[in-house]
Design a protein that fits this description.
Pfam families: HTH_20 (PF12840). The chain is an alpha+beta fold and about 110 residues long. It has helices spanning about 5-15, 15-25, 30-40, 45-55, 100-110; strands at about 30, 60-65, 70-75, 80-85, 90-95. Strands 1-3-2 form a three-stranded antiparallel sheet. A two-stranded antiparallel ribbon has the order 4-5. It is globular.
C-alpha cells in the first residue's frame, strides 16, 4: 500500500459507522436496511460507508432473492486483521482479509442463479 492508501484506510477505520458496519457484518451477513437500524445511521450514511469499505475490499456483497421476486444485497465483512508497524520512521499498514474457498464460492454463485 502507498502512504495515501494507508492513510485512507486508517481514516476509514477511524469512522464510527464504518467500524459499526464491519462489526455487525462480521457476525452475520445483512442488508443495508438492517445495517441502518443496527448502526443507528441514515441509509445514505450506510451506503456511503459500504461503498468505501468495498473500495478497500473489506466487505463483500451477495445478491439475495425475496420470495416476492425482489432482489437486494447483503453484506459480509472480509476484514480479519489490520496491523500497523512503525519501522525506520515509516508506518506500514497490512490488512488480512478472510478468504472464501473455491467450493463455497461456486455454491454461492450457483445459488444466486
Amino acid at each position: 500500500m502507498t502512504d495515501d492508501e494507508d492513510a485512507e484506510l486508517l481514516g476509514l477505520l477511524d469512522d464510527e459507522y464504518a467500524r459499526a458496519i464491519l462489526i455487525e457484518t462480521s457476525k452475520e451477513p445483512m442488508s443495508a436496511d438492517v445495517l441502518t437500524e443496527r448502526c443507528d445511521a441514515s441509509p445514505p450514511t450506510v451506503y456511503r460507508r459500504i461503498d468505501r469499505l468495498d473500495e478497500h475490499d473489506l466487505v463483500e456483497a451477495e445478491q439475495e432473492l425475496d420470495p416476492d421476486g425482489n432482489h437486494y444485497k447483503i453484506y459480509r465483512a472480509r476484514l480479519e486483521r489490520v496491523a500497523v508497524e512503525l519501522d525506520d520512521g515509516e508506518f506500514d499498514v497490512s490488512v488480512q482479509r478472510t478468504e472464501e474457498d473455491a467450493a463455497d464460492r461456486f455454491t454461492r454463485l450457483y445459488e444466486e442463479l
